[in-house]
Amino acid sequence: METCFAAKGDPRGAAEGLVNAYLKHAPSAEDRKMLVDEICKCPPYVRIEIMRDHTNLDWRDFLPHINSPTLVCCARESKVFDVHGSAWVGENIPGAQTVIFEDCSHMLFWEKPKRFNQCVISFIKRLRK
């Protein structure tokens, strides 16, 4: 909830805090600025609603009813979602594939782009068979 208040009172500061939470490894100054700028393109009230959605809605009963192919990618060192909770999501969606990434945080696609892209490509290729 602290992030919601920060997004309203200090949107740029909140975005900088999110970048810190989203990444295990510090980005270059140029990348940090780009990430913060991108987050700031989303109006604070939208960011607040996204945070509320993530923290107030309980989807556990819904997960077993998902019947679409699902790839769940989790970061073992995420500061946003605990890896056990994220893995639990994959365990409770029928047929889901769960992949746990090491040495990265929430933005695993940024910190481990080759592995992330390979996971997505492999997942899609299996669907096409």
From TrEMBL:
- Please give the InterPro entries that the UniProt record associates with this protein: AB_hydrolase_1, AB_hydrolase_fold
Highest taxon listed in the record's lineage: Bacteria
Pfam families reported in the protein's UniProt record: Abhydrolase_1
Q: Where is the AB hydrolase-1 domain?
A: 56-113
Name of the featured protein: AB hydrolase-1 domain-containing protein
